């Protein structure tokens, strides 16, 4: 993850408490969508560092409909932002609307927000179009002293775009999540290592890898970690990667075995 400049951390400490008060007041007054959009524009400028009249565009047309806000930086749309009224709970149909905007315009990143909650999605241009929730921010819950919260805020910040923060964070959650870890634990190489450790603990006990796998699946790991679409993707990713590493290792060993005799003669 990119290092966050101290001046940006100081900006978070200065602006977040201000907008926490504004958002609480707006929620109490149940402001409408237009007023929520206005607050979000100010937040994008003051918290996240975008030029209000140059880089924050309102009413961005997409196939005859309009997305509430768009962030344009470096001659490119960086985010499409769908804003709902502050009192509305964000739902799947709102998310789908935001994803459709990104898919139709060829924009990889979209944000769904009601001013308080900010959901950052990556649009995955496959067939069919897919998406992944990368991060959720609740501004009212942000603690400006926590580095974890700074990291999440940085994903939406102008400086974060220049430092590829969102791509790095996406790669991180792709590699470090419960599905990938579950797939690694159930990989045969890991099962063999567990088997070795069990034999060290109890030398007289006979145990096979399929027994260990069964215990992991039925008693250790949660069902949703090893079943479903995300689990299947993780298993496939881990399996391909480990096979690739294994093939590379075998090729390196073959090359060593070929060169070793000649080297010995020269010596």
Could you tell me the CATH topology label of the largest domain.
Answer: tt1808, chain A
What is the arithmetic mean of pLDDT?
88
Low-confidence stretches: 263-267
Structural class label: alpha+beta
What count of structural domains? 2
Which range does the strand content fall in?
15-25%
Q: How is the largest sheet built, in terms of strand order? A: 1-2-3-4-5-6
The top level CATH class name of the largest domain: Alpha Beta
Number of strands: 6
Overall shape: elongated
Report the helical percentage: 55-70%
Number of helices: 11
For the record, the CATH architecture of the largest domain stands as Alpha-Beta Complex
Rg is 25 Å
Succession of helices and strands: HHEEEHEEEHHHHHHHH
End-to-end Cα distance, whole Å, is: 47 Å
Largest sheet: 6 strands, mixed
Quaternary organisation: single chain
What descriptors fit this protein?
267 residues; alpha+beta; tt1808, chain A; 2 domains; 6-stranded mixed β-sheet; 6 strands; elongated
Topology:
Blueprint: H1 6-29, H2 33-46, E1 56-62, E2 65-73, E3 76-83, H3 92-105, E4 109-113, E5 117-124, E6 130-138, H4 147-156, H5 158-162, H6 165-175, H7 178-185, H8 188-201, H9 209-220, H10 223-226, H11 229-266
Parallel strand pairs: 3-4
Antiparallel strand pairs: 1-2, 2-3, 4-5, 5-6
């Amino acid at each position: 993850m990119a290092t966050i400049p101290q001046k940006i951390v100081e900006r978070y400490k200065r602006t977040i408490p201000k907008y926490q008060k504004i958002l609480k007041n707006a929620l109490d007054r149940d402001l409408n969508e237009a007023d929520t959009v206005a607050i979000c524009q100010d937040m994008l400028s003051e918290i996240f560092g975008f030029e209000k009249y140059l880089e924050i565009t309102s009413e961005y047309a997409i196939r005859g409909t309009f997305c509430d806000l768009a962030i344009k930086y470096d001659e490119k749309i960086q985010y499409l932002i769908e804003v709902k009224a502050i009192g509305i709970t964000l739902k799947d149909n709102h998310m789908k609307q935001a994803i459709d905007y990104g898919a139709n315009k060829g924009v990889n990143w979209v944000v769904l927000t009601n001013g308080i909650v900010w959901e950052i999605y990556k649009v995955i241009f496959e067939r069919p179009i897919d998406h992944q929730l990368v991060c959720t921010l609740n501004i009212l819950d942000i603690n400006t002293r926590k580095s974890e919260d700074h990291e999440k805020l940085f994903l939406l910040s102008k400086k974060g775009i220049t430092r590829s923060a969102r791509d790095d964070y996406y790669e991180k959650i792709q590699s470090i999540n419960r599905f990938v870890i579950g797939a690694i634990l159930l990989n045969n190489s890991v099962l063999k290592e567990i088997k070795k450790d069990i034999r060290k603990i109890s030398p007289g006990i006979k145990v096979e890898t399929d027994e260990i796998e069964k215990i992991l699946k039925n008693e250790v790991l949660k069902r949703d970690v090893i079943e479903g679409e995300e689990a299947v993707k993780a298993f496939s990713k881990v399996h391909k990667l480990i096979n690739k590493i294994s093939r590379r290792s075998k090729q390196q060993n073959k090359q060593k075995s070929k060169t070793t005799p000649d080297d010995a003669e020269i010596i």
